[in-house]
Amino acid sequence: MITRRFVAGLVATLVAAAVILVLPLFLSDTHEYRFAFVATFFIAALGLQILTGYAGLISLGQSGFMLIGAYTTTILSVDHGWHELATIPLAGLLAGIAGFLFGFPALRLRGAYLALATFAIPIAVIALAKKYSDFTGGGGGKNLTRVLTGHEAYVLTWPIAGLMFVLAWLLLLGKLGRSFRTIRESEIAAVSSGVNLTVTKTLAFGISAFFAGVGGSLYAIVIGFVNPDTFSINLSLLLLIGVVVGGLGSLVGVVFGALFIEYVPLYAPDILSWAEKPFGSPLDPQRAGAGAAVYGFSLLLVLFLAPYGVAGLLRRAYKSLAPSSYTH
Amino acid sequence: MPLLKLTDVRARYGQVAAVHGISLTVDDGEIVSLLGANGAGKTTTLRAISGMVATEGSLAFDGKPLPRKAEGTARRGITHVPEGRGILGELTVWENLKMGAYLRRDRKAVASDLDEVTSELPWLRARRDQQAGTLSGGEQQMLALARARLARPRLLLLDEPSLGLAPIIVEQFFALVRRLNEEQGLTVLVVEQNANAALELSSRAYLLEVGRVALEGASADLREHEGVRKSYLGY
Amino acid sequence: MAQFVQQVVAGLGDGAIYASLALALVLIYRATHVINFAQGEMGMVSTYIAYALIAHHGWSYWPAFVFTLGVSFLGGFAIHETVIRPLHRAGELTVVMATIALLVILNGLVSWIWQPDEKILLSPLAGGTWSIGSVAIPQQSVYDLIVVLVCVTLLWLLFRYTKLGLALRASAVDPSASRLLGVRVPWMLSIGWGFAAILSAVAGMLAASAQFIFTPGFMQVTIIYAFAAAILGGLESPVGAVVGGLTLGVTINLLGTYFPGQISPDMRLPVALALLLLVLVFRPAGLLGRTVVRRV
Question: What is the ipTM of this complex?
């Protein structure tokens, strides 16, 4: 089991952990705050990686499960006096159950049909949140009572992110991970090797929704406010982009994905200004839409240059450094 | 000058080399067969000719180098009936036939060719609107041949036509190919695992083993060759 | 009764727009096995081009409409050649991601170039009604239905009776066999994208008229209905997409009219998707899709 690949993954993880530990010393409070968001996306994206990267089930519903987690935390802490931290496991659990239940009707759907069915999840959940406004604060949203500083948010979210990462790794280690990967390759092959499709697929949905719920819960705590429209399909797309950019099937890659989705849209106008300089800045980079165009273009660039994500690039770099000894 | 000349052709699928330097020729009006066991490189050789795989070496057709893309080789008059027949299953019988004439512009001649082909096989016209994928294996093979004829090829490549077919169908099929060769001068390069049938049909043959030409010569001679008889003819 | 007829006609008009976009999705899926998330935005860009021709360059409606269709064809063709084709080796998900990137880029570019404020692109029939007794038939809806049916019919004729159409269908069915027959398959696939772009341009321009005002995001809800319609009909069934779109339009309209309490405008979309999910549970390949038997 101690293969070269395992060692490489371990080293990468330790390096990342070290960086994350040390980073607060160099970041201002605002930046720490932003980085805390990266952690919440990271957790939700981790769940999506399990579902899509490992089990091969494309889902656009992750933001809907985040919403469930976020609102669980909000309602419990604001209306029922729970301590925010205590709500996190329950938020994950409720989201996880919802995901698990969704797995049943989803059993019969494959590929494109499944992806489009999952489209319905955030839309349905948002509509429900808006409808039962007495409970949820409706379209206007709901505020949480506690407000965190950037540093507090960072210290809260990243250890949990680390925990979830280890959890994901452990889950995927044994039989379950293999079952997921087999399903991704071929469902028929999976069944012939004794994989119970029903159990495995619903578990995949359930587990990934659990991660989304935890991510959503943390997101609510960090931002101090929930609003149904935050968890629209756009967020699901964003998470999917994060997983693909990081590299499908790579847990470590998800970090890069989370960084991409948090920072590229943020710095898009700056990137644009810099890119425009040689041309004399014909179009105002601050105008609406410019940032989005740059963000989309960066994504396209990544897809062209690194279709297997950052993890793929790293793997290629690693291969070129140690060509003869690399065994897949 | 031979119609088709391959000199030291190599071909690979990704990193795996399947053909390691094959040289062969086919003259106008000949039927030549490529024999060999599974994995010998026969199919790959055909695909190298029709431009479906990456190749190195010299491939000359009519004295000029062959294009390296399938669309190009088809345009030069090479019709490749692939393994599994390449029938467009969701299209009708008639639509498949029409696709045979895809590259042709002479509508009147195409119409008369269609008449000729369907008069020999009347069921093609009778079942013209049937989905081609629902035909039996033998019928699909006949359809594939009819479709190939509509292209008026200068060189016909047949990949394992007898695969999965009952012996009597194979006989009928090869009889038709022989007749086309004798009456219309159709040049054929056929790949077959069924060495008996192939040697009876062709005038010359190449025996491939592990991506190389192991033996070549007149079919009659190969039929008498002891090694061939033991390994490939079964007696 | 009068209201029923009105709502059915209005529903058919909306449904025609969904049908056109759904058909574009099906066309692309059949040809290249890609779910083009950017199809709605492509239609949106086409609409803005038409708008620019009319509002900034003084063209009249019909010439602008037709010209936009031509430009859209080229745009769809180009997108397939430059973005989709190079990436298709990296896998289905990567290509889908690319369409998402396109979605974001197109939306951003349009906001940037034309500003996100409200614009107007009215067809000659917008707002008018025909009175037949006590029934007021919205002209726009009838117009939407006719235009889409004409486009769909023309496309059908092309696919069924022309050599190009046959080659397009062959390329989708078996690209490798088609290449051996001499078809330039990648070219064909790009042409398929071009036709899909025409359909989404039609949907966009009609929707802009139907909604009276539009902004860069105006196709984002329509594309969801179109996906629902395409799936309902079966992603590989063109007939299904059209029938699905029309049915969806009429059903949503009628439900919204007769159950205004439960089905507020906000709830229309979730209801549509709930219906979709329901259908998929019993017929995973859509109502008219091919049921591939995989008892696994």
Answer: 0.91
